Amino acid sequence: xxxxxxxxxxxxxxxxxxxxxxxxxxxxxxxxxxxxxxxxxxxxxxxxxxxxxxxxxxxxxxxxxxxxxxxxxxxxxxxxxxxxxxxxxxxxxxxxxxxxxxxxxxxxxxxxxxxxxx
Length: 118
Hints:
By secondary structure, the chain is mostly beta strands. The chain is built from no helices and eleven strands.
């Protein structure tokens, strides 16, 4: 069973930067996609950024040009570099990994809080 552990959240001032990490407990094979989501109270979880097994990336319009998703296969880790943070980026950030064996497998991290406030 793959476990994902996020880290790097915290409190930052508007305009600042944070880097989130999501480390898997074991090597992950047959990755379809690795995704960062975020959620605020009373709202649905929204996709922030994704990177496919082939390395293609995609971003929510609200974070394009400010956030960068990347991964290190050797470390079984996916990253989210967040720059020029805004108060509306405040949320709990979750990582998700989808793999394909005989079926699609979904793994989630526990979430890390990001608060952007002066």
